[in-house]
């Protein structure tokens, strides 16, 4: 039995429309329940308020525990309902009509609830529209899935896909030249583009790492040759070689640790251990440590006017800030000031700041400063691997934050880590 193509085309839309109606009705019912509970509470509060004000008016004060109260009708008719108050010895202190105010409060709350229901009914199209916009991506996915389900591939189309993939240019794209396969063609080309980008990044990373490791290895080899030739007899050459080899090994160890950190991060093996931390306290701790470690620069701390609490990995976030502080100390002249700060931006986002008066950077250097192994020309005379800022960016990215950098050559640099 054959199916009607038109029915197949509208089936997902009909299902999604039904779901949209259901969601809109559920939202409206939830609002109606909230209105009902709120109005009942208002009804009780209005009656209680009238009772309180009436006792103040007639008796002169209100004593909740020291009096007995009752609602009474001599004929049993609700229209003659009275509110009575007695002292603890049985003396009647007040007897006033209650039905009139009860009736008025009831009518007022009923009218309010009716107006709320009318407003709710009038807002149904708006609620339905919001639900439809929210479900639009799901509707599109359902329609695409239904379209793929109804698409009958012939053997020729399968062979066309197979031949195009087998004969594809590694540096190019795939073209099936078939309208029915346009969606698959775009998806495959997008995948190829991502694979090519990943391969280029990996190749660049390996080449840069090899280049950075080549220099210390060459230095170690050179001093090893010196030791072999003259180190046994020349004590000066021996001491110089041992010191140089030790320094290069330390540099290589630092480089390898940074490479491993980035490799673990890229592979998803570094998991953030988030907790609630006080940002002021973290920055004050980094400031005090910098003040003790670095005796060549005066440090200043600018605290926020409030306590700022965020959810973050304390260890990794501290590592990111320490990288910025170490760079500031490295590129700032002796006795020049370095400022650490914490606060909130104009749009109320928390930030941590490191500001120096060092050599600064050009705009081009700022645009590339977080790339792996990138080092500005002015910075090449200073010792470093070019990976520190890449690690800091990885950490900040995983916290959903970003950097704001202002730098001028010969004036200094201000870097802010802005968090969400």
From TrEMBL:
Record key words, sorted: Kinase, Membrane, Phosphoprotein, Transferase, Transmembrane, Transmembrane helix, Two-component regulatory system
Annotated EC: 2.7.13.3
A cellular component term, taken from the record's GO annotations: plasma membrane
Gene3D superfamilies: 1.10.287.130, Histidine kinase-like ATPase, C-terminal domain
Gene Ontology annotations of biological process type: cellular response to phosphate starvation
Domain of life: Bacteria
Pfam families reported for this sequence: HATPase_c, HisKA
Residue ranges constituting the Histidine kinase domain according to the UniProt record: 208-420
Transmembrane segments: 101-128
Annotated catalysed reactions: ATP + protein L-histidine = ADP + protein N-phospho-L-histidine
Location in the cell: Membrane
Molecular functions per Gene Ontology: phosphoprotein phosphatase activity; phosphorelay sensor kinase activity
UniProt-recorded name of the protein: histidine kinase
Species assigned in the record: Butyrivibrio hungatei
Lineage of producing organism: Bacteria, Bacillati, Bacillota, Clostridia, Lachnospirales
């Amino acid at each position: 039995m054959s199916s009607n193509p038109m029915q197949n085309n509208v089936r997902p839309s009909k299902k999604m429309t039904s779901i949209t109606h259901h969601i809109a009705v559920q939202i409206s019912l939830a609002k109606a329940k909230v209105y009902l509970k709120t109005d009942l509470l208002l009804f009780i509060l209005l009656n209680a308020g009238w009772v309180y004000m009436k006792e103040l008016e007639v008796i002169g004060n209100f004593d909740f525990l020291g009096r007995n109260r009752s609602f009474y009708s001599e004929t049993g008719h609700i229209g003659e309902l009275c509110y009575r108050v007695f002292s603890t010895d049985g003396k009647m202190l007040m007897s006033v009509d209650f039905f009139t105010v009860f009736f008025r409060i009831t009518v007022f709350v009923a009218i309010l609830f009716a107006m709320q229901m009318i407003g709710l009914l009038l807002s149904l199209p708006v609620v339905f529209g919001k639900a439809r916009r929210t479900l639009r991506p799901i509707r599109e996915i359902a329609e695409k899935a239904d379209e793929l389900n109804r698409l009958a591939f012939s053997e020729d189309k399968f062979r066309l896909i197979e031949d195009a993939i087998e004969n594809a240019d590694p540096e190019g794209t795939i073209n099936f030249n078939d309208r029915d396969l346009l969606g698959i063609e775009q998806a495959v080309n997008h995948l190829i583009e991502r694979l090519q980008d990943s391969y280029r990044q990996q190749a660049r990373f390996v080449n840069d790492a090899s280049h950075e490791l080549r220099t210390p290895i060459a230095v170690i080899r050179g001093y090893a040759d010196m030791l072999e030739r003259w180190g046994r007899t020349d004590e000066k050459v021996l001491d110089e070689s041992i010191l140089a080899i030790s320094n290069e090994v330390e540099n290589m160890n630092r480089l390898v640790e940074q490479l491993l950190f980035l490799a673990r991060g890229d592979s998803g093996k570094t998991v953030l251990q988030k907790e609630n931390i006080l940002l002021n306290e973290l920055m004050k701790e980094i400031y005090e440590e910098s003040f003790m470690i670095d005796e060549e620069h005066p440090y200043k701390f600018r605290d926020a006017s409030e306590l700022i609490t965020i959810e973050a990995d304390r260890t990794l976030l501290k590592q990111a800030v320490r990288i910025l502080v170490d760079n500031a100390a490295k590129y700032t002249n002796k006795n020049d000031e370095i400022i650490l700060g914490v606060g909130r931006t104009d749009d109320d986002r928390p930030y941590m700041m490191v500001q120096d008066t060092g050599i600064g950077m050009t705009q081009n250097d700022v645009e590339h400063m977080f790339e792996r192994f990138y080092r500005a020309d002015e910075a090449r005379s200073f010792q470093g691997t070019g990976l520190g800022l890449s690690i800091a960016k990885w950490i900040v990215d995983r916290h959903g934050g970003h950097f704001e950098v202002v730098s001028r050559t010969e004036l200094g640099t201000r870097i802010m880590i802005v968090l969400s």
